[in-house]
Design a protein that fits this description.
272 residues; alpha/beta; TIM Barrel; 8 strands
């Protein structure tokens, strides 16, 4: 039994899709996660949708390296959510063999959010891609318990999932007991990084750290070891570590390699 590691978009955000797969292969990752849909209008993303030449090159590099695409970013559920808007993202994900899509909840009307999430899961079923709801303290789904409640209220669709990010575990009112209580079948992958833990941060501070200044595992005080011991050992691990000031002086390969090495020091690929 061994743990698979995936290179998250933010860890290699300057790379195009084919470049990212090459970097992942050279650094020793098994998968990559791609942001083919921006997290806000005009925000950074990787451009592949509607670009058949990029898709062909990406598929060719996948075949050459054996590196797969694990997850897609990002689907945001707002008040006026329509899952069909994301058909191009899911079509691209299916072509790439993606397994999961990251779902963010922005709708504070929980009844409507539950209905939208259920509709999204139904829409995604033919694609064979799971809908992994990420709890984040500045969104409508702030904790692991919130995520479980939304999914249970949605009827626990067969392709539902919960994404556990070490950063959001360490900065939300989520305990190790809450993590252990997540039904195992809802866990498809998790994200590793480090930071200063606590629930005292402003929304601006939370978002800044998440998108620009995460620490390598062991550099902060999030109980990442306890967190990942609470999750099953073979859960695929997405290495999501962005620190823009430090990354500015390094190549994408050097940074991706350092991040994976740090993750291995905390969580070995195989059980001891």
């Amino acid at each position: 039994m061994s743990r698979a590691y995936s290179l998250a978009y933010l860890t290699a955000y300057t790379c195009t899709p084919p470049e990212m797969i090459r970097v992942a292969s050279l650094a020793g990752y098994d998968f990559v996660g791609m942001r083919l849909w921006p997290n806000a209008p005009g925000a950074p993303q990787q451009f592949l949708i509607g670009k058949p030449d990029v898709l062909r090159e990406t598929l060719a590099v996948q075949k050459d390296t054996g590196v797969g695409v694990f997850d897609l970013e990002i689907i945001r559920i707002g008040a006026d959510f329509d899952p069909a808007v994301y058909r191009p993202l899911l079509d691209a994900g299916a072509a790439l063999g993606a397994r999961a899509a990251l779902i963010a909840a922005d709708d504070t009307d929980e009844i409507r959010l539950v209905d939208s999430y259920a509709k999204l899961c139904e829409f995604m079923l033919p694609y064979g891609i799971t809908a992994d709801l990420e709890f984040m303290p500045w969104t409508a789904v702030k904790t692991a318990n919130d995520a479980v409640r939304v999914i249970q209220s949605a009827g626990r669709p067969s392709n539902a999932g919960i994404l556990v990010d070490a950063l959001h575990f360490g900065r939300s009112h989520t305990t190790l007991a809450d993590i252990k209580a997540i039904p195992r079948e809802l866990l498809h992958y998790a994200q590793i990084c480090d930071a200063e833990a606590g629930t005292h941060f402003t929304t601006v501070q939370l978002i800044h750290t998440a998108r620009e200044e995460r620490f390598l595992p062991g550099e902060g005080n999030i109980d990442a070891r306890g967190l990942f011991e609470a999750l099953r050992f073979d859960l695929p691990m997405s290495v999501e570590i962005v620190h823009k000031p430090r990354m500015a002086g390094m190549s994408a390969l050097a940074w991706a390699s350092l991040c994976l090495s740090s993750a291995h020091q905390l969580l070995p690929r195989r059980p001891l």
